[in-house]
Structures are given as C-alpha cells and as structure tokens.
Amino acid sequence: MNTEKSIGRWFGGMLLLAMALGIWNNFGLSNPVLGGEGYLRNGADMPNLFGASVLVALFTSGLGLAATVIAWPLFRRTSPGLALAGLVITGVGFATTVVEQASFLSMLSLSQQYAQHPGADPQQFELLRGVVSAARNGIHFLDKIVGGAGLLLTYLVLYRGRLVPRLIAVPGVLATLSQMSGISLELFSRDLPMLMLLPLFVMQLVLCLWLLARGFHAARIAGTSPAIVDQAG
Questions:
Q1: How far apart are CA 13 and CA 230, in angstroms?
Q2: Cα–Cα distances in Å, from 126 out to 38, 98, 111, 131?
Q3: What is the pTM of this model?
Q4: Which of 16, 37, 89, 219 could form a disulfide linkage to 41, CB 3.0–4.6 angstroms apart?
Q5: CA 188, CA 159: separation in Å to the nearest integer?
Q6: For residue 24, what are the CA distances in angstroms to 29, 63, 72, 79?
Q7: CA–CA separation, 45 and 112 (whole Å)
Q8: What is the mean pLDDT of residues 98-124?
Q9: One-character DSSP codes across 35-84
C-alpha cells in the first residue's frame, strides 16, 4: 500500500510542478518577448528569455513523460490498453514540444536578422514574421491537443481503475474534452474561448492536491471489487 501511495504522490507532485512551470513559462518568460511590439522587435534584446523559455518548456514536457513512466506499472495493471496508449501519446507530446521549441528559436533568429539589418525593407520582415509565427503557432496548438489527449487517457485510466474518486476522474475527462475542443477551434482560424481551458486547470489542480495528500488507492489497484471498496470507505 505504501508503494502505491508513494507513486501516486510522486505522480501528483510532478504534474503539479509541470503546471507551475507551464504558467511561469507562459506568463513570466514568453510574455515579455511576445507582448508589446512583438517578438520581431523584442526578441533580439531578450535572447536569454528565449533560451530559458525553451529549456523550461522541454523540462516541463519531460516531467509529464516521467510521471507517466513512473505510474506505468500501476496503470497497466488496471487498464493495460489505455495505459500503453497514454504512454505512447505522452511520448509523442514530448516530440511535438521539441519541434515547437525549435520553431520558437526560429523566431529569435528572425528577430536578430531584423536587428542586424536596419536598412532592410520592414514589410519583408513583417511578411516573414507572419509566416514564422504561423508555423510556430500551428505546432503549438497541435502540441496542446496531443497533451490534452494524454491527460484524457490518464483520467480514463483513473476512472476505470477507481484509483481516485470518480468525482475527480469524471470531471477530469470532461475538462480534457473541453480543452481539446477549444484548442481545435484555432485550427479553423477561430478564436479560442479561454473559459474552455479553465475546467482542466481546476481539475488538474484538484487531482494533484488529492494525490499529494492521499496517493493512489492500493485496494483498487490490487483489483478489489468496487462494491467491497465502497463498503470499506
């Protein structure tokens, strides 16, 4: 039992750290570069923020993959197919993050070229800015959809294995569907309603705090009848 609870706490702690780093990266590191006059004019003056953002993004995605690997021995005992699919999707998510960060660095390169050629036609750079931004945003949205799919599979494993209360697992499934649906709108050139992302943020926070406090339920992992578990409280 102690092993299952310990793994659950590690899993929750790593996901919580990944959430915190993701928020810091989006609003603390990337925002100064992308805000104001935009990355074309800001980027050359903030190369350290570009580099730090890339490293934090890779580390954050790696944390999610590591958490899935840690939980794999337990997940596969309850839902082998879903567990394997989740592991594969999380690995694909790490790969898409790598591609996204490579595209992000191309934005820095364009900004540096802009700064080094002040006499060049600004309209040409504006045209390139749009192309480079579109390439980066495209892989960014795909990365987030893949990440949502990985979380969806995780919540399904938690639901089927009764590893956490279903009051957490069921809303978690719905929240991931909301996130994936919202981000998918961007693929059709529609604005993303930010409220569609809020449920997943809330459920991830609830899940992580629950796991840090309680871990995975060992009896359910061991295959105890749900009726017996419910009677045991």
A1: 26
A2: 11, 26, 11, 9
A3: 0.87
A4: 37
A5: 32
A6: 7, 15, 28, 34
A7: 8
A8: 89
A9: STT-HHHHGGG-HHHHHHHHHHHHHHHHHHHHHHHHHHHHHHHH-HHHHH
